[in-house]
Amino acid sequence: xxxxxxFYLYLIVAVAVISGIRLLSSPEYARWGNIIAAIxxxxxxxxxxxxxxxxxVGSVAVALLIGSVIGATLAIQVKMIQMPxxxxxxxxxxxxASCLVxxxxxxxxxxxxxx
Length: 115
Known about the structure:
Elements: H1 3-23, H2 30-52, H3 57-77, H4 83-107
């Protein structure tokens, strides 16, 4: 893809994510905001993986399927009263993932520090 095309796709995805988050502030449009933000995030992930050629289509499909099954199971089983605990748990999982990525990058001998 051309660099200008990639730039505009990133721009469209960023605007869609921000628009989706903005819609979350209204109870009337929160459902649409969630859908728009989720689709935009999926598009961003696909765009990055396609541009960087990091993973195959099959591995992305398997990861998406596993995540969808886990998410659907949690959505069905978790009661609304338990939602704050679920959000805290998912936030912790994101933090743990960030920690593991930073540790892997720090252990990578090809990485150089630019301070």
